[in-house]
Write a structure and sequence with these properties.
Strand content: 5-15%
Number of strands: 18
Bound molecules: iron/sulfur cluster
Strand order of the largest sheet: 2-11-12-13
Helix content: 40-55%
Low-confidence stretches: 200-238, 249-256
Oligomer: single chain
Structural class: alpha/beta
Distance between the termini: 73 Å
């Protein structure tokens, strides 16, 4: 096809594609650039890519329509209705996820939170603006705009996650999104990345941490503190852990928002297409490299199905699979519920690794944020291991009519199990890597000394809980990991 023929075809496809206005604007921008470009390999590839994305098949169109036609609810009069302003403030302070839709159009087999298929309900954009206006100042510094959902499934008429994120930015909140690239959202995702690229005033600083020694673009992020179940654990190397930690430290503060892709063999091509078009739009390679792409190989079910609805997978690893996908204690607001979440170890009786409680108006019980998604990042700093605290117990905040009445530290072996597993699976391999670095001896000893003290204090409480524990799996796994840690600490010289 000649350039002229291609452009004619693409323009006609663009006209008929189901896209929100701003996505159409982006497509027009790419077409204009294409028109002005020489007809070389790059522009031909761009035209092919555009062709593939604009030629929406019936399924894509169906999903787009579902998203747009989902029932729209007002956040303040749906799940947050009947709560007083003071109660909402308390919830918002501990809220790390605002789920924008009930339902998801992707349907990943590993979805351990059992998202309902298809978008059934969505929050209205004006109600989200009202929510921000009234309570935005109380939000924590970082929020995920998703939970059992894909954030890019959310549209309210012409508004998409791009526009919504910009609103959150006004409250100095870092927005974290993770996407499996729902069909038909590719141009919105591109706009999101372009917003990050051009919108972040210090985006040029990204060159500071672009270092291929540290971070290989699109490497299997086997070390993510969340979603790690989806990776082949054999690939986990302590060196990677270290690199991951350094990367997190170096990127933190440089990028205003965080975006993570779940790349699977279902969406690999579309992820590639998004990156190819962004390159054509001259987004720098180092910026694109800074976006996290986690690869998930669906051809081998073993890698992805050890928790959630696949909890009975016989290949489940007794220890590694204790660390689940849930990544914070605190509140979750969805279109239909307000819940308190506390993270515990994944077991057959708790396949999500979560204790969930609906929060009702009046008497509220809410988990204090004692664990968030960046918990393990804090374990590193620019200069090696830092003064890190092991995962603390769950703390329950009890309110009456919005007033804090009681704060209770919960003694839960399920939580302790997670604490010890973090140590065993994530922390100790890194310490052993440091052992190999010359000149780190006294530093490592100091770190291990502090860790040992924290471990010993905690284990005293856990041992008292053991005979009371009714869940045999929690009991036996906790005993196993405690014994491993005791042996390990016994062999370490700390002075
Ligand atoms: S995109 Fe997320 S919420 Fe949707 S099915 Fe996949 S894992 Fe579940």
């Amino acid at each position: 096809m000649t350039k002229k023929e291609y452009l004619t075809k693409l323009k006609s496809l663009a006209k008929n594609a189901l896209l929100v206005k701003q996505d159409q604007v982006l497509v027009a921008e790419i077409l204009t650039k294409l028109e002005k470009s020489a007809w070389n390999k790059l522009s031909q590839k761009t035209a092919e890519t555009l062709n593939l994305l604009l030629d929406q098949d019936a399924l894509t169109k169906k999903k787009i329509t579902q998203r747009l036609e989902a029932k729209t609810v007002d956040l303040l009069t749906s799940s947050l209705t009947n709560f007083s302003d003071l109660e909402i403030q308390n919830i918002v302070k501990e809220c790390h996820s605002l789920q924008l839709t009930d339902g998801c159009t992707v349907g990943c087999p590993w979805c351990c939170f059992s998202a309902q298929p298809f978008v059934k309900v969505k929050l209205s954009y004006p109600s989200l603006l009202n929510f921000l206006n009234k309570f935005g100042q109380h939000l924590p510094t970082s929020i995920m705009l998703y939970w059992s959902s894909d954030p890019f499934d959310w549209y309210d008429q012409e508004q998409s996650l791009v526009e919504l994120t910009q609103e959150f930015k006004k409250y100095q909140v870092q927005v974290v999104v993770s996407t499996a690239v729902p069909k038909g959202t590719e141009f919105t995702i591109m706009r999101y990345i372009l917003m990050e690229y051009y919108g972040s005033s210090d985006h040029k600083k990204t060159s500071n941490y672009h270092n291929n020694d540290i971070f290989q673009s699109r490497y299997s992020d086997v070390l993510s503190e969340t979603h790690h179940q989806v990776f082949d654990k054999k690939q986990v190397l302590a060196e990677d852990m270290l690199n991951y930690g350094l990367l997190q430290t170096k990127t933190r503060g440089n990028l205003y928002n965080k975006i993570r892709f779940s790349e699977t063999n279902m969406n690999t091509k579309r992820v590639e297409q998004i990156f190819a078009l962004l390159q054509f739009l001259e987004v720098s390679d180092y910026f694109l490299d800074s976006l996290r792409v986690e690869k998930r190989d669906l051809t081998d079910g073993f890698n992805i199905i050890n928790m959630g609805r696949y909890i009975n997978n016989p290949k489940r690893d007794l220890l590694k699979d204790v660390i689940g996908t849930a990544c914070y204690d605190g509140a979750l607001i969805t279109p239909s519920t307000v819940e308190s979440l506390s993270v515990v170890g994944v077991t057959k009786n708790s396949p999500e690794g979560l204790i969930k409680q609906t929060i009702h108006p009046g008497k509220q019980e809410l988990a204090q944020t004692n664990y968030t998604f960046d918990f393990l990042d804090k374990f590193y700093d620019e200069k090696y291991l830092n003064n890190w605290q092991i995962l603390p117990p769950i703390v329950s905040l009890q309110f009456e009519k919005g007033i804090l009445k009681k704060k209770t530290k919960l003694k839960l072996l399920a939580r302790d199990l997670l604490t010890y597993t973090f140590l065993w699976i994530r922390v100790i391999p890194v310490i052993e890597t440091y052992d190999k670095i010359p000149g780190q001896d006294s530093y490592v000893k100091k770190f291990v000394r502090s860790l040992k003290q924290q471990f010993q204090q905690r284990v005293k409480i856990s041992k008292k809980l053991l005979p009371l524990e009714k869940d045999e799996e929690i009991k036996s796994t906790a005993q196993l990991v405690i014994a491993k840690l005791e042996d390990w600490f016994a062999t370490r010289k700390t002075t």
